[in-house]
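Researcher: I'd like a candidate sequence for this fold, 480 residues long. If you have to choose between options at a position, lean toward the conservative one.
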């Protein structure tokens, strides 16, 4: 694999992360605590977002790959699939950045803008995620090359963590002026970066394709074509879905991943609140911004080690170990003295590291599942985007459930609807402190216990995985 491809894949991850990190941290705070959307309206907006967020992944995956799941589709080369993904990134990357900036600047009534803005942003984010993840599966079936791409992606995410440090410095709940200027700047950087990087990669793959002697690629190399909505194509797509749902490993994975998505977004949405409530008054002023920034930097940095472990021990065993560690850390803090504030700070940081680490490794698991589907169902070509979209249909609800359930848990713990206002007016009592710590540690303990029980049933590992890989790689060699 050329160094250019790895660097470019890392750059694409960087441009995506610098905007999405900011969105994850502040989208709840901006609308609930700055724009004062009431709880009932916020819940209704999150329910609408939950429905759209679940539907759009398989929908966009279908629109992207419907011709690939058709039984009558001719076999196409891997470079053709990669070109298709890159051309989508060049179009939708800048549109994602525009929707990101518009989300913070209401032009409609606040609640309406929240619903429209979050659904619009997630639509473009879904297309980008589907294509970015599909590239991981389409560029190569080799574990080593996929790991190399994942490392480049982690490096891009590490550099992108600078947006978290800066955002915390310009964040002011009562005045969003400087925050909006910052969001405008990173949206411009990201949009231009998406267009230039994807254009460079497209040129490289088109040159390689033009030098090849294989001819049946012409139908795929052009601009993205309109999807077929003929009954035969729809039947083929439904048949594909049924085949996926009959894969036990796929079902075990999406159950585990649903809980993981919930936990990741719970951390992202409420970590600033936990840091502010539990630590802000007990540490120097620079400590909380530093902890926030490190919480987004270290998971990606640590992911290099996790990926190396995956090469030696296998992805299954690494995820299993991280789930156990996640439970043990939460349990240790739960039974410890709540006055050990340094222990709480370490837990908040380590909880992000191991939770996000598992999320990053899930892409490698899906890539392996795509290989299993390709071999066991004797497919002519991998419909990676459709596969990722189907998986997201079952896991993305966790993204919306996290802020909804989190607000309920914290409201019960605080005994007040407006947690921030109450804690600013009243001193945090020992009972309040214990209640918040119970939420902080209880969520990861429950999540990890259920995940460990589910993950034990997943058997795409060891000899079975090696067999799948060998068959897939043999078919790739025969297609060259």
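Model: Candidate sequence:
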């Amino acid at each position: 694999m050329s160094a250019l491809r790895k660097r470019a894949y890392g750059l694409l991850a960087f441009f995506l992360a610098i905007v999405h990190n900011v969105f994850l941290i502040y989208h709840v705070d901006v609308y609930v605590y700055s724009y004062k959307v009431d709880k009932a309206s916020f819940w209704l907006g999150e329910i609408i977002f939950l429905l759209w967020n679940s539907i759009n992944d398989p929908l966009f995956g279908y629109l992207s790959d419907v011709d690939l799941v058709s039984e009558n589709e001719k076999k196409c080369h891997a470079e053709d699939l990669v070109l298709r993904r890159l051309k989508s990134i060049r179009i939708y990357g800048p549109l994602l950045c525009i929707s990101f900036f518009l989300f913070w600047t209401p032009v409609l009534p606040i609640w309406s803008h929240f619903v429209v803005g979050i659904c619009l942003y997630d639509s473009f984010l879904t297309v980008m995620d589907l294509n970015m993840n599909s590239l991981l599966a389409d560029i190569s079936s080799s574990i080593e090359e996929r790991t190399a791409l994942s490392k480049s992606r982690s490096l891009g995410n590490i550099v992108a963590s600078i947006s978290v440090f800066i955002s915390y410095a310009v964040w002011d709940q009562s005045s969003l002026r400087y925050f909006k200027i910052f969001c405008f700047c990173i949206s411009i950087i990201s949009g231009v970066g998406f267009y230039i990087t994807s254009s460079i990669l497209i040129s490289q793959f088109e040159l390689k394709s033009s030098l090849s002697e294989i001819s049946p690629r012409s139908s795929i190399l052009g601009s993205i074509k309109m999807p077929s909505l003929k009954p035969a194509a729809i039947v083929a797509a439904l048949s594909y879905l049924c085949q996926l749902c009959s894969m036990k490993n796929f079902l075990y994975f999406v159950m585990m991943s649903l809980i993981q998505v919930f936990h990741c977004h719970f951390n992202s949405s409420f970590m600033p609140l936990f840091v502010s409530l539990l630590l802000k008054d007990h540490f120097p002023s620079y400590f909380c911004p530093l902890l926030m920034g490190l919480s987004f930097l270290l998971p990606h940095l640590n992911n290099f080690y996790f990926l190396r472990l995956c090469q030696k021990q296998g992805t299954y065993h690494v995820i299993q170990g991280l789930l156990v560690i996640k439970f043990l850390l939460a349990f240790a803090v739960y039974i410890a003295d709540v006055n050990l504030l340094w222990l709480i700070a370490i837990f908040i940081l380590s909880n992000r590291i191991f939770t996000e680490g598992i999320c990053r490794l899930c892409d490698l698991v899906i890539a392996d599942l795509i290989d299993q589907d390709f071999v066991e169902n004797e497919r002519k070509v991998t419909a990676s985007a459709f596969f990722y979209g189907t998986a997201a249909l079952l896991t993305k609800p966790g993204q919306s459930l996290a802020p909804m359930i989190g607000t309920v848990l914290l409201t019960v713990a605080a005994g007040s609807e407006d947690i921030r206002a109450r804690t600013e007016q009243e001193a945090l009592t020992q009972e309040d402190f214990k209640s918040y710590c119970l939420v902080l540690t209880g969520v990861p303990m429950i999540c990890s216990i259920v995940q460990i029980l589910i993950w034990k049933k997943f058997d795409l590992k060891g000899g079975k995985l090696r067999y799948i890989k060998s068959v897939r790689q043999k078919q790739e060699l025969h297609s060259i």
